[in-house]
Amino acid sequence: MSRPATPEPSALPVELTINGRTLSAQPGRTILEVVRAEGLDEIPTLCHDPRLEPYGSCFLCVVEVKGSPRLLPACVTRIRDGMEVTTRSERIVHARRTALELLLSDHYADCVCPGQLACPAGWMCRGISPWPGWGTSTRHWPWSRSAIPSP
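The chain above was modelled as a monomer; its predicted structure follows.
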């Protein structure tokens, strides 16, 4: 009697928990891909482009993974079986704000971005607008007007 064929380990779905919700996903995917595909949260990114290999340089997509002492970038962290992920907490929001402040502290809006083509002032506002859950949407404008010269 022959045994039924068992799928290769890499083809078996990965069981993980994201924000308290247990789900299955295909191995090899990143936390960011799974969260977006499942509609679990809006994780902000600046460096992520689905057409390119992820490299995690902006650190705006950091998440907490149980067992890891540090926050991990969701765009480059591959899912593992039994992984427990939190995508929103006070620690995460603080780290994302700090990362954005550091990125903008040395940025003078002198690059040419796709959004500048549609903006009469030539700004790429999406890159400096706050993401959901970061407070009021007008708090950053006085700072950005004084810190980033406008055309």
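The chain has a mean pLDDT of 79.
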